[in-house]
């Protein structure tokens, strides 16, 4: 294993980042540009690779949403100016009016969902921070297997390449929605995107699942086996708890998605009938009989629901940590925070059918799924109350990380509460597949998870690059995103409550849905502005990597956790000397007369006395 | 050219942004970083309550502004029996979640402002409070219990099928809606109130889009109307099917929604309570419906005059998903009876006596085989829907 091979001598050069030649000689894992920056085994470098790949995909996914928002906001506008980029997907009529091809509209919607959910908010988020923080915060020199970790990233990269290639297919990328419900996705004749686009989509995601599983196994093994001396489970920072639970969720649910895809591939290419029955399409009655499209939905949502927690739980952990550090207070109710994450993770596996209330499943079974779903509100409420209680009587520093953490809590409240509406099957009769759902999940797991990611990036940027991001630009980014996201998604509640269905290319075909033309324009403009603010972040990010303010203190946020005890430019192996030992939990802020007490500090006399008196 | 301009503008913006950031950093290092940071912190803290007020005001104001268009709280009253229960549950949920929304958002942003950094102040070391935590675990649990119980009772009554002893035609009527790319195919059982058998292998686009099996006599009086016509205050059971991919039978005004699945028929039972004409009358008194139907043409009819219940598709089914509209007309029982009388069965008008008439050809075959015996099957089991 990598960490055993690294000699102490090698590690002493770790902080000596200016002199790469020394590292060349002493660390066989940093022998060249390729093994340092590309096929790196160092979890810190792999984290950066995940992050930058995630940012790339976020820009692509975001741009896609702008294009389909243009269509929704301005259906009568001339879009022939997009023709140089989108080519044949802009259809120009006799009068020179260019409009977005409906086939491509659906492809964009599908790709936006797939990319954001899997590539950005799964790989980009937990891939980045699990990699960066697990070894550093538990006091390990690297992941349990650096090799698997590297393979995990490169499988993610490969799946991205396949997905990216599918964008350029003549028949277009997959366009049947990110959930890929059959028969639409299973029948090439049902939609142009269900031809080669769907094949590549499936291949890409199977590779992606392999990546997630390799990563997950590694995270779990590392947390269980490689904690430093004194780092018991109940002393771990909430971030590590969150990443551990996220990895377990992924490990248990992603294989089920693969099984769904395998059956799908059988139906598509071997003429089996797992999902297909009694279909007449394109003038032809197909031979498939006896399959059930609902089976796919069960398999898909058995992953799909845990997946939304895979997306949001890392945010829980990072936000807890960042709020605590910047309030200079221990996280309120540490054990309750851990237990609520565990409860949410457990419940995540028995609520999947709440996505299928109107799918034709037995309405009696729905009763159980309603009960379990609404129970999730309890641990979620506990988390929110505990975050707010952590602010209470704190001494709050509004770093950019902290701002995004506060924003995360606000969004999680707003989006979580609408979950109580949708989880109640009776209300779902009206709300299912309307814009209310779009508003709900974008706020609670889309934007909120992005806020968790931003909070983490701003907070741990110095840990990654030894520099700070510009705080003025960061503040503009925060307020722009906060206001902008609410302006995009809040009004969607209203269109949803008016009954407007999601995944519509135009609304004016129905009198019932056509009355929101000006509101849709508003949403589109808000989306464009919010996206522009994100570019500010991207500029700030890349500029600061090279030119940002240098980190001079080892522990810039005065945090208790171990990641700030390693040298600023730590080499592979993290600590040049022996691994730090841990003597206390991660949240001794403002204890006694101290501002903070690092985890590495043994209990003081007065603390021992206090403990004794208890 | 435009692209180049956009690119240039973006590069310019990037340069400006970086410069602003740099200037601020420089400014901070000139004036003393701590002092500037403290000032910035104070300013940011002040933005918290300002944002809170604007945010909450924006939420309430926009909700009030758009309420007339919403189902349940808007100008349109609900038009089905179970829909009224859903609406009242929704109002309860709005009140409960609304209270929590306001309390938590206020606490969040207010604490963020109130406890913002002050030099020399020390944060309190509060690690937990078991009593408080038990209380705020128990309260949501109790509230959720009420919402679950209320929700499930509405759900189970809304989704219940017709009673077993109900007689079709008398206690309820049964119609059928079939989704295809990209239209709804409707079927009315005709005078016998029974939908004839179907087989997807019999589908042909020329004269049998549903694949009705003509050897089954129950289908002979089936009507294939272009719009849904239903009597008011009568229970209707909709048999929902799909020909190719998933669709969803969605009637927003009746709070009806159910997936249409190829191979697996689904059902939704509901009772319309407001006729189309009554609804137009109600809407004629609402300000947001007393506007021209076509906003660009002030001479057009009023919005309320053009009102119709609509059937839509609510499950992504392909590129034309957004276009699957059918009109739904709710009429009085007398009007309904008259409408049924006026319709001609598809079999009679299109099939009977043609080459496609499998009933006739089969009867002939049977005749040939078993001369003298009863040729026409009248077996009751055949008349049941498969």
What does this structure look like?
- The complex is a heterodimer of chains A (614) and B (386).
- In chain A, 62% of the residues lie in helices and 2% in strands.
- Chain A is mainly alpha-helical.
- Chain A has a single domain, classed as Cytochrome c oxidase-like, subunit I domain (Cytochrome C Oxidase, Chain A), CATH 1.20.210.10.
- In chain A, a hairpin with a 2-residue loop joins strand 3 and strand 4.
- Chain A is globular.
- Chain B is α+β, with helices and mostly antiparallel strands and 386 residues long.
- In chain B, a hairpin with a 2-residue loop joins strand 1 and strand 2.
- In chain B, helix 1 packs across helix 2, helix 2 runs antiparallel to helix 3 and helix 3 packs antiparallel against helix 4.
- Classes of the chains: A mainly alpha (614), B alpha+beta (386).
**Estimated radius of gyration of chain B:** 32 Å
Largest sheet of chain A: 2 strands, antiparallel
Stated plainly, the CATH topology of the largest domain in chain B is called Immunoglobulin-like
Order of helices and strands of chain A: HHHHHHEEHHHHEEHHHHHHHEHHEH
Query: What is the rounded distance between the termini of chain A?
Result: 43 Å
Please give the CATH architecture of chain A: Up-down Bundle
Derived structural class of chain B: alpha+beta
What oligomeric state best describes the polypeptide chains here?
A: heterodimer
CATH fold field value of chain A: Cytochrome C Oxidase, Chain A
Principal-axes geometry of chain B comes out as elongated
Query: What share of residues are in beta strands of chain A?
Result: under 5%
* Helix content class of chain A: 55-70%
